[in-house]
Amino acid sequence: MVHIVGLEDTLGSHPFAEGMDPDALRTIVGCCANAVYHPGDYIFREGEAADNFYLIRHGLVALEIHVPQGPPIVVETLEAGDIFGWSWLIPPYRWTSDARASEQVRLLKLDGACLRGKMESDRSLGYEIYKRFVPIMARRLASTRMRIVELATEPAVTPRHKG
Amino acid sequence: MEGLERILGEHRLFVGLPQPFVALAAGCARNVAFNAGDYLFRSGDPADWIYLVRHGHVALEAAVPGRGAVMFETVSEGDVAGLTWLLPPYRWDHDARAIEPTRALALDATCLRNKWETDHDLGCEVLKRFLGLLVQKVNAARFQVLDIYARHY
Amino acid sequence: MPAITEPLAPAEGDPMLPRIVRVGKRARDHNGTVTLTLESADEMPLPTFRPGQFTMLYVFGVGEIPVSISGDAADETCLVQTVRAVGAVSQAVTELQPGDTLGLRRPFGTAWPLEDLNGRDVVIVAGGLGLAPLRSVIYHVLANRARFGNVALLYGARNPADILFRSQLEMWRKRLDVQLDVMVDHADSSWHGRVGAVTLLLPRLAVDAARATALVCGPEVMMRFVAAGLSDTGIPDSSIWVSLERNMECAIGLCGHCQVEGLFVCKDGPVLRYDRVRRLMGVKEL
User: Fold this and answer.
1) Looking at the domain assignment, is residue C172 inside a domain?
2) Which Gene Ontology biological process is one annotated for this entry (chain C) (predicted)?
3) pTM score
4) Tell me, which fold does domain B2-151 have in CATH?
5) Could you give the number of structural domains in chain A?
6) In which domain, by residue range, is C52 found?
7) Across the interface, do A68 and C31 touch by the CB < 8 Å criterion?
8) In 3D, which of C194, A51, A46, A89 has the Cα closest to residue B134?
9) Chain B residues in contact with chain C using a Cβ-Cβ cutoff of 8 Å
């Protein structure tokens, strides 16, 4: 019981849950667990089933795309207070990038299948969660688009091969 | 009114949405048409309309000083032109220009927000759809940012 | 790879020996990409090829590289190859002029499964320079259009200026019996086509997934996302083909370093079935 209360406090103090309806918060805690990753650990990998999403409590997480030659491309870095993992929201529920701990990372891991089940029977819970995801995703979309625009104004980079 | 409901319910984004919600959302809708070259909205304007494209082709672009505009996405039938109305302070950060004659259903964003704030069931259903669209578009923008074709990954 | 110190007489049986060919025509495309029309320089017929294969081109005094064949397999009078300057040898190949001679080692590698396409819907997805080895398939499909169901051709490029074979794409686009879509990552305001990720086009393909075969060629990350996206539309992994060109230069699989999980990408490839390589494509190094 003490453990559950602790988790509820931890979840409630994360910016993602700020101002969340107490009933919704209590329901979500039932789908929630703590997780710790060490520097270099993969939290998930591209192509795997996307069953969770994550709230960062401490540490830095890199979303990466691996390429055949050379180091992975970091598409985004996220830190304490951020959330990541949205492939659990829409079919085919599969990760579209790798997520890796850049340093020691403490996370709250939310079970997407558990949440999806609860949201189907409780639309107001769905509303609470979707309404938090929407501006976060809209901001990511806006910033990624600005990077496309920047890229368009740079000359193309041509890699040099041995051939 | 019935016409708007039917059109809204047939748009790819709202297909399968329960009829009472379609009826609610249709209360915020009106038909709009643009000629080629017309702007649906411009950067800096309040983002107060949601454009569900029915026919045509719309360019989303951002002005770059000294270089004209850079087009980062085009939107056609069944898609939504502009999603910044989901992000406070609800102000467009890019332009939307009709490349071809374009017909759209315009939803009053404030009207829709007010409805889902008082009716969370509606909110859940509608936000879920826009969230799905956002995920799809973020994934696509990520792909574009990788600059795959130039770098030969 | 054995060093080739001097040009040798053509030897039909020995894949290690080059024969001499001459540049008939040279066409410059965008961005350092050149398409060469090669003709026989020794009275012997040119080697035939199957779409998807590549040759080893040898520039005297510079070196040898694998180059995609981008021409029509039905035309046996010439061999059309497309190359982009990314290094010393490819740079030298792109600088060859009509009349120049070079060494050519016969077509290598697996081909696109053209026989399997008969009676099926055909999806061709190309990215960047990946259109070159698929152009040979497009020639075949358009010349024998009645053999296939619906045909969809999707092409992704960095920007409008980088579109390969642009005038041909524009010509094909006028056909009523082919769905052709071009998607660029970004454009200026003069572009009237589509902008976005090529993967966005996949859910809108006008094909019957259960009876479609898909051929995908482009940068490997693009193929990874496109093949996974095609799989999501319901096309079985065993009906999706990709062209993996990592380590293609070893050409006949003599080297050990390109063997992964029992596959020689260079010998069993470049064209491989997605169900055999799906897991492999998630691996960082082959």
Assistant:
1) yes
2) pyrimidine nucleotide biosynthetic process
3) 0.91
4) Jelly Rolls (2.60.120)
5) 1
6) 19-108
7) no
8) A89
9) 57, 59-61, 67-74, 76, 97, 99, 136, 139-141, 143-144, 146-153
